[in-house]
């Protein structure tokens, strides 16, 4: 037999990267919003913190808070946030479920949400819960509003809309911002900026989709500005804020779906607060659902959002004013998520196949070569005669 | 079974004597239990299938692009021994075993579907299309038996085997686009089309379309495989592989849309000229007992995934050639996959002629990992 052109072996190769293939793809790793501190990744053996340690530390903290005097109530939330920072430093990766359970334990304390419903520091708590809820951020923020926590905080709605947009529900992201207006969230500039940024990103996505379909010829027809097509299954159209519409205060806000109306009722109508409470939260099943929502693996692909500069939003939720995409920076020792001043330098990807195979399968290509396919040098198969066999 | 074939000690492959497959040395066995199957075809293997009947001695059949079909049998020496070969004057695009493992259906690129009777070693044409036959599946239903063939001529045809040698077509379904992949797990059949739509058929009392699902994947569908529900009783959905290094898991009757998802796979670890290369997912197979899946790609790796936990179980080291097809034995003990050039880089990319067949013990590798709490 002819000598093999290469030496084939099944000997195992040294490929250290294979063990971390899953983590290499950014969609499979959910980083914290502000990146991870480098010290947290350089752990020493003696400093290893376990899940039990975190649970015990929280229990001690909650017990300590129970004994606080009334004058020290403002320190309670700060101590909780300090615990969150400690948790994120010590248990950076792979403890999303534990983190969610601990956060739920915090907010489910009696009177906690009512006590801090106007405190903007609660935004951090909701963000952390949303980020660790296995893709159920929409439900978390909805729950927060239903419990009247940060109802009038515009930054919450901006963050909520952004998380929904990341999940690909662009129409729902618009509804969230509409809800912010209906609830008279302040400052209104945050809502306006988030809305503008959302539409800008939507246009950019459409342009990119159009660029990827170079072979298709799309017949573009002009339509009257007032006859914009609906988007999705609902009869809603893209938000177009004309100057005359912005200044017109007599028109009613756009209506929501029935489901949203039932779950999240606005507390403000005609730019005035209602004289009495119109929302009563009695659906206990929601609480039980959200308690264990982190067990439901809702894998949502995330991709970087190139936000425009919006210090109002970032200033409300983070101490840093950086308004750039967070992306991984690999080095020879470890992988660190950090915020860089320059634009993202994530490597581009390309398919390792010929362009013709995007529309034509490999087998079709081979079949098109017949009868001159280089493999076809064999004789025709013999036909079977069943009569002879019988 | 092969007594009447008259082969005896006659040479079967390439003029050389029949020999058993090569087992890796003991030093490598502890690290890697894979072993090669001797006598692989000289051209790219398009399809490889274990015999369906659970046997003490499973059989293995493969079809290649040079029209060669070969059958091996697992012998007493724990190796696969070559048993039979046929040469078809066209590339083999798919094969399907009959339920008792006595015959093999062959889908050929010359627009014909053939039946190979292993006992008599004769081949008959049992169906024809207006284009290359891409898929063939044997349907062993409660009320009827037939062969389902899908083709690039945009039709799905069902053939009756009772009136051979006459070709009897039981049904024909006109499809909007070419058939790129198909799978059958009675009573469900799924057909993936070139327009990235998946037709779902109920095969009870004849094929009936029950759903037309648009693929979650943006690029061309390359393979499809049906999986069972958690009770391992009934088909529940399918997994799709595309040329873009992505797999979609789709439930047919989904209670929660979040149950459907996609994940990336088969992408280069290093940058090549500043780009991360994305490879095609050439085949997908589900483990019959564990419900986990294995994907193989043009990057020369196979990966094992737990779709319920949405985690990766294992990834192999890169092989020197793309992996073209795979199959898991009905016992769940063996994974077989073939190496060869898959034409992804065109005719000029075929720099390493030939193919290899590797058997991998997978019952432990594809076992879902217990959840830690």
Q: Report, as a whole number of angstroms, the end-to-end distance of chain A.
A: 41 Å
- What is the correct CATH architecture of the domain at 22-210 in chain A? Alpha Horseshoe
Overall geometry of chain A: flat
Average pLDDT over all residues of chain A: 62
State the largest interface.
A-B, 61 and 86 residues
Number of domains of chain B: 2
Quaternary state reads heterodimer
Order of helices and strands of chain A: HHHHHHHHHHHHHEEHHEEEHH
- Largest sheet of chain B at a glance? 4 strands, antiparallel
User: Outline of chain B, from the CA principal axes?
Assistant: globular
CATH C-level class of the largest domain in chain B: Mainly Beta
Radius of gyration of chain B from CA coordinates: 20 Å
Low-confidence stretches of chain A: 1-6, 12-20, 213-220, 241-269, 271-285, 299-344, 377-390
| SS summary, helix count of chain A | 17
Amount of beta strand of chain B? over 45%
Q: Which second-level CATH architecture of the largest domain in chain B applies?
A: 7 Propeller
Structure description:
- The complex is a heterodimer of chains A (390) and B (373).
- With 390 residues, chain A is mainly α.
- Chain A has a domain of 189 residues: Serine Threonine Protein Phosphatase 5, Tetratricopeptide repeat, CATH 1.25.40.430.
- In chain A, a hairpin with a 4-residue loop joins strand 3 and strand 4.
- In chain A, helix 9 runs antiparallel to helix 10.
- The two termini of chain A are 41 Å apart.
- In chain B, a hairpin with a 4-residue loop joins strand 10 and strand 11.
- Chain B is globular.
- Chain B starts with 25 loop residues before the first helix and ends in a 12-residue tail after the last strand.
- In chain B, 50% of the residues are buried.
- Chains A and B meet through helix 1, strand 5, helix 16 and helix 17 of A and strand 1, strand 8, strand 9, strand 21 and strand 22 of B.
- Strand 5 of chain A pairs parallel with strand 23 of chain B, so a sheet runs across the interface.
């Amino acid at each position: 037999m002819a000598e093999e052109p290469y030496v084939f072996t099944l000997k195992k190769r040294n490929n250290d990267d294979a063990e971390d293939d899953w983590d290499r793809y950014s969609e499979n790793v959910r980083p914290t919003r502000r990146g991870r501190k480098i010290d947290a990744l350089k752990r020493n053996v003696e400093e290893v913190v376990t899940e039990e340690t975190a649970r015990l530390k929280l229990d001690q903290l909650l017990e300590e808070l129970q004994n606080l005097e009334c004058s020290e109530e403002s320190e309670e939330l700060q101590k909780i946030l300090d615990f969150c920072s400690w948790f994120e430093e010590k248990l950076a990766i792979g403890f999303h479920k534990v983190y969610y359970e601990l956060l739920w334990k915090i907010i489910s304390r009696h009177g906690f949400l009512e006590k801090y419903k106007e405190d903007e520091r609660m935004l951090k708590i909701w963000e952390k819960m949303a980020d660790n809820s296995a893709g159920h951020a929409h439900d978390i923020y909805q729950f927060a509003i239903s419990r009247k926590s940060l109802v009038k905080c515009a930054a919450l709605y901006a963050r909520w809309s952004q998380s929904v947009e990341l999940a690909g529900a662009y129409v729902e992201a618009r509804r969230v911002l509409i809800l912010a207006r209906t609830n008279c969230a302040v400052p209104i500039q945050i809502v306006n900026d988030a809305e503008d940024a959302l539409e800008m990103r939507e246009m950019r996505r459409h342009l990119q989709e159009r660029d990827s379909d170079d072979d298709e010829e799309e017949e573009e027809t002009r339509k009257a500005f007032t006859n914009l097509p609906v988007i999705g299954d609902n009869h809603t159209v893209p938000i177009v804020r004309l100057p005359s519409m912005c200044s017109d205060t007599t028109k009613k806000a756009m209506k929501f779906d029935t489901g949203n109306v039932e779950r999240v009722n606005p507390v403000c109508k005609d730019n005035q607060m209602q004289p009495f409470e119109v929302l009563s939260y009695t659906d206990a099943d929601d609480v039980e659902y959200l308690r264990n929502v982190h067990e439901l693996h809702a894998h949502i692909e995330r991709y970087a959002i190139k936000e425009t500069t919006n210090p109002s939003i970032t200033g409300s939720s983070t101490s840093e004013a950086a308004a750039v995409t967070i992306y991984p920076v690999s080095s020879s020792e470890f992988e660190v998520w950090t915020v860089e001043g320059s634009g993202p330098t994530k490597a581009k990807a390309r398919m390792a196949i010929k362009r013709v195979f995007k529309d034509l399968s490999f087998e079709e290509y081979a079949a098109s070569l017949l009868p001159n396919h280089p493999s076809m040098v064999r004789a025709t198969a013999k036909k079977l005669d069943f009569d002879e066999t019988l | 079974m092969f007594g009447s074939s008259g082969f005896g000690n006659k040479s079967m492959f390439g003029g050389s004597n029949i020999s058993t497959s090569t087992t890796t040395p003991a030093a490598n066995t502890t690290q890697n239990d894979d072993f090669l199957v001797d006598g692989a075809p000289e051209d790219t293997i398009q399809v490889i299938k274990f015999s369906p009947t659970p046997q003490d001695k499973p059989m293995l059949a493969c079809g290649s692009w040079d029209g060669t079909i070969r059958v091996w049998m697992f012998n007493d020496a724990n190796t696969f021994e070559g048993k039979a070969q046929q040469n078809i004057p066209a590339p083999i695009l798919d094969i399907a075993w009959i339920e008792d493992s006595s015959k093999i259906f062959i889908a050929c690129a010359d627009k014909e579907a053939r039946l190979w009777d292993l006992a008599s070693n004769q081949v008959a044409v049992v169906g024809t299309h207006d284009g290359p036959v891409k898929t063939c599946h044997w349907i062993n239903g409660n009320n009827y038996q037939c062969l389902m063939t899908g083709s690039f001529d945009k039709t799905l045809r069902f053939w009756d085997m009772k009136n051979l040698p006459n070709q009897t077509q039981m049904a024909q379904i006109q499809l909007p686009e070419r058939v790129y992949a198909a799978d059958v797990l009675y009573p469900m059949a799924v057909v993936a089309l070139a327009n990235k739509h998946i037709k779902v058929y109920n095969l009870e009392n004849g094929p009936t379309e029950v759903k037309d699902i648009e693929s979650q994947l943006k690029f061309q569908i390359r393979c499809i495989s049906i999986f069972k529900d958690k009770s391992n009783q009934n088909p529940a959905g399918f997994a799709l592989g595309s040329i873009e290094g992505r797999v979609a898991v789709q439930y047919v009757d989904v209670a929660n849309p979040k149950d459907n998802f996609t994940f990336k796979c088969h992408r280069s670890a290093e940058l090549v000229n500043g780009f991360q290369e994305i490879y095609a997912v050439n085949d997908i197979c589900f483990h019959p007992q564990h419900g986990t899946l294995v994907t193989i790609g043009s990057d020369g790796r196979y990966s094992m995934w737990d779709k319920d936990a949405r985690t990766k179980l294992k990834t192999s080291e890169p092989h020197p050639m793309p992996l073209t097809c795979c199959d898991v034995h009905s016992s769940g003990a063996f994974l077989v996959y073939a190496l060869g050039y898959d034409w992804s880089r065109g005719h000029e990319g075929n720099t390493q002629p030939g193919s290899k067949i590797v058997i991998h013990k997978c019952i432990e590798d594809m076992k879902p990992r217990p959840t830690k709490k």
